[in-house]
Design a protein that fits this description.
Layout (H helix, E strand, L loop, with lengths): L4 E11 L6 E5 L2 E4 L17 E9 L2 E9 L6 H11 L2 E6 L3 E3 L13 E2 L2 E2 L5 E11 L6 E10 L5 E3 L7 E5 L9 E11 L5 E2 L1 E8 L5 E12 L1
């Protein structure tokens, strides 16, 4: 004889995308870590989302399971859910031209760009950085570098500045150069040892010499593989 089943509705209070740990409000009671039947759609589970709860009575006790998120057709919740399921491309850009003379990596006064990619179980993230870099001096050694810093969902820095590849424009020959010499530089690299999590990938910059360097049309793009 089959076990009796029933159905309840819950509201997600919190959900950890990395571990599946959760708190769900069911009829005013907060229930922790309810098992999930629809793992593939777990990327859509965010605070405030409504989910269905399957209740199975087994010999005087109950087993609860999340059976899926509930959304109405044509609503923003539906659109957001579909986008979360399919999205693996993240891109941000800051167009404003901004100067620096710092010879250590840091932020510009026009912050970013930054993106928040959700890394999957593969742990792999393809990162692409680009910028127009302008050397605002005719010194024989001048230019600039751009890289990224990667932090996890707790804010802990996984890769600090200087530990990942950078893109740059730099001349070091003995000839002088015209004021405002520039280059649009792009680089892509693979980070392959991240755990499943939502990360912050933030652009960082430095001058490659003692002169003023300008960065504009700065872009960071990430693809979770």
């Amino acid at each position: 004889m089959a076990d009796p089943i029933s159905w309840r509705k819950g509201t997600i209070i919190s959900f950890n995308q990395s571990t599946g740990s959760s708190v769900i409000d069911v009829g005013g009671t907060h229930v922790s870590d309810v098992p999930i039947l629809g793992v593939a759609e777990a990327a859509t589970y965010v605070p405030g989302a409504t989910v269905g709860i399957l209740v199975v009575d087994t010999g005087g006790s109950q087993s609860w399971f999340v059976i899926g998120r509930i959304v109405r057709a044509g609503t923003q919740a539906y659109i957001d859910s579909v986008n979360r399921l399919s999205n693996s491309f993240y891109s941000g850009q800051v167009d404003t031209a901004t100067d620096t003379t710092s010879t250590t990596f840091g932020d510009l006064t026009t912050y970013g760009p930054l993106v928040n990619p959700v890394v999957k179980s593969s742990g792999k993230l393809l990162v692409m950085v680009s910028s127009v870099i302008i050397a605002n001096d005719s010194d024989v050694a001048n230019g600039g570098l751009m890289t990224v810093q990667i932090s996890d969902s707790t804010g802990a820095i996984i890769y600090g500045t200087g530990t990942l590849p950078n893109v740059g424009y730099y001349y070091s020959d003995n000839a002088t150069h015209a004021l405002g010499d520039s280059q649009e530089a792009t680089r892509a690299f693979l980070v392959s040892d991240l755990g499943p999590d939502t990360y912050t990938v933030l652009a960082k910059y430095r001058a490659q010499g003692s002169s003023l360097t300008t960065f504009s049309f700065r872009n960071v793009t990430c693809i979770a593989l």
